[in-house]
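debug: dumping io for the single-chain case to check the tokenizer round-trip. Nothing else runs in this session.
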Amino acid sequence: FPNNDNFVTRTRTAAARPHLDGRFPSPSSSMARQKPTPNTKKFGMPLYASAWVDGRTVLVAGGGGKKSSGIPNRVCVATFDGDTLSDPLFVCHTDETAPQALVMFPDASRVLCVFGGDVAVYDVSPNPDADGSENNQLGEDEVSDPPPEANSAAAKTPCIIAPARLAADGTAFRSQIASCDIKCAAFSSCGGKLAVGLEDGRVALCEFENGDDKTSSLKLTTTIGKHSDSVTSLSFSRDDKLLVTTSSESAVSHDGAVVWSLATNEKVTALSPSALVENAVAKSRKKKARHQKTIASYRHCRFDNSSYGIVTVLNIDGEGFVMQWQHDVSSNNWTAVRSARATRDPISSAATTPDGQAVACGTAEGAVVVVDVQKLKVMTTDKNAHMIFVTTMAFSVDSQFLVSGSADASARGAVARKVSPVAAIARIVVALALLVLVTLFLTVFMRRGGVAGLLGGEDTRTGAGGITSDAMGGVDVADAAAQAKEELARMTEAAARRAAAAEAGASVPDPTPQPVVQVDLPEMTGAEEVVEEVVEEPVEEPAEEPAEESVADYAEDYAEEVVEAVEPIDDAPIDDAPSDEL
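debug: decoded output
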């Protein structure tokens, strides 16, 4: 957070200063080529804080300090639907002090706004005016601007920000917590306690007077402990029994990250430097001169939702890392179990999803990186999120969306967990494999006769060649062979009569054609062997007629007649063919 009102002025003028090498930025740089996108909006002021009201409504806050800077100080309401971040739909001015942090109450009905060492509570209420045209006056020096294009349906604001309590001069009532700046703050799960980390290194608890969080003021009641440098982050455990804090002091020391007991208000243990930190420091010292020091400091910490596990974000010589710590119940200590580098640039801001499954890191170069906490792998990277360093980040209450803000006055919304192309292809392959398996199952199911076939058992009858009737799709090969034998016997008898009639010079009429049952056998291994075995079975001819025509000769002659009858039909158009031939 900025330490004085001139921070924003210095930030604005920094862009006009030459680089360290004496040259101005090139107009053809990536910053100049950056194009506006629907998920990015300019809010006309440097942004320092952000918070989500629900899964769609987000608050962003910032400003320029004193009125002489010409930059307003305000809290803005916007919406994000996964694709487009809206313009400010509602604006609440905060006099001459820029908001430095926003902390939502657990029930999301109010938001705590931090101004240096002071805090003020603002009500977050649904918009009673459907078209957003109401101009709610908050005081002499603090007014709410109506949303742009108030009569437009797109300009409807989902909520309105107003002070929960007014001071004598009509401004928002503020409670002084400390004489120095509040660097971070968080509510307990019930909302009864507020933990704050101060610029002087103190870790303290604040409570509302008389237990009334609506009309009474906040007071610092207990100082739990103290770091040697300013506190950078803090987090309550799920059961509100422990508090973990990190500071700007060196991560090599034993006080860079500390776990505190809220029952005794004492330090439980310090997170000892892990092998990652020690190895990185050792390698860095080899590359540097003796008088140069290795910079390693924590930027963020968070208890997970299932146990006392902790996730920390830290910088080691200008590179950002994410580290997991596991709690040992027997010794009541924490051990670093895994770590991974998230970015090669220093991390300036970080946030964790409410479900604890992902952590977002904003870099000093304006990039945004989302890391999977369980796998410690980078899920998404947006290198062009902002033009300069990221100052604030926050996840939506359903962990689906992420908003980041920068001192360049821009806010950017993003989907927290995007599916990578490789993962998308893998899902498609798995879906196709499942589809093939289901198709095969249904095919076998129908061939077995459905439910009745499965309940009745399999037909294990085996025909010639070892092929079962079930394998042939319900066709009995033995019956087919018997029918073939009967047809061959009939043809043999007819051929014998024709031969005898030819010798006697008399014509014998063709016997009445018998219906032939045609069996369509599927093409399967072994089926050809069965038919071939049946066809080649020898036929005994009558002994008294040795000179009669063989069955093979008769079949060959008959086949030639069929070919001669079909050839003219194939050559001629189908419309010109005789009806009897058709």
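debug: round-trip ok. Residues 477-504 form the longest helix (28 residues).
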